[in-house]
TrEMBL record:
It comes from Helicobacter felis (strain ATCC 49179 / CCUG 28539 / NCTC 12436 / CS1). Transmembrane segments: none annotated. This is Alpha-(1,3)-fucosyltransferase. Residues 44-126 form the Alpha-(1,3)-fucosyltransferase FucT N-terminal domain. Pfam families: FucT_N. One of its GO terms (molecular function) is glycosyltransferase activity. Gene3D superfamilies: Glycosyl transferase family 10, N-terminal domain.
């Protein structure tokens, strides 16, 4: 059931291999903690590293060609990047619009047209990337991935896929009929999203929806592991 979608995603994400990788000095103003380590776990690192030899920096006084940052206004994560004088790229997967007074270029979920300054990267695209990488990084995956792609990603499988994602593994191998499962699941922890909340209520009016998040839950308490839900 998921394999055809994965095949289309992999085909659309395929990039030509350059004859020679050009150097790129990339400034990082990402999340709290180890920004470089965190950034390397995202698809942006894998896309750029397939085309460039990257040198990372996190300090505004260190030389870089361009800087990429996390555009989370509510957490104040859009402020540190102001110390960089280079061109800035902002990304957000949340319900926020890129602030183009801060960023020269932006990536986000919004259906926004801003010429070459904006690229729509919806959150489900990154979720597909995570599932794709997980399939490459674990042994005995139920999904078929081109071995050359696995080698390109430099993934080193160490654990069984079914141990990390037992529900997805069982669903993929058994090819269960999704119509025989529950109608829908809803996991959210932020009540400050009136359109999403209204959508949830409309769905519940049609058929019962299982809710297990921090808000609009039907279980009494929020789940500790929303992915298993």
């Amino acid at each position: 059931m998921f394999q055809p979608l994965l095949d289309v995603f992999v085909d659309s994400a395929r990039l030509p291999h350059p004859q020679e990788k050009k150097p790129l000095r990339l400034g990082i103003s990402w999340w709290h903690g180890d920004s470089i380590k965190n950034f390397k776990s995202w698809c942006f690192h894998h896309i750029l590293s397939s085309q460039y030899e990257i040198t990372y920096s996190t300090h505004p006084k260190e030389p870089c060609d361009i800087v990429i940052g996390a555009s989370f206004m509510l957490e104040g994560l859009d402020k540190p990047i102001l110390s960089f004088l280079q061109k800035r790229i902002g990304y957000t997967g949340e319900n926020e619009r890129i602030n183009f007074d801060i960023y020269d270029f932006g990536m986000g979920f919004d259906l926004l047209s801003f010429h070459e300054r904006y690229l729509r990267v919806p959150l489900y695209y990154l979720s597909l990337w995570d599932r794709f990488y997980e399939s490459c990084a674990h042994l005995d995956s139920p999904f078929q991935i081109d071995p050359q792609i696995v080698q390109t990603l430099k993934a080193t499988p160490t654990t069984l896929f079914k141990d990390k994602h037992p529900h997805i593994d069982a669903l993929a191998r058994e090819q269960s009929d999704p119509c025989k499962r529950g109608f829908a699941s809803f996991v959210a922890s932020n009540l400050n999203a009136p359109m999403r909340n209204a959508c949830y209520q409309e769905l519940c009016a049609y058929r019962p929806v299982a809710g297990g998040g921090g808000c609009l839950t039907r279980l009494g308490n929020a789940l500790q592991t929303s992915m298993n839900f």
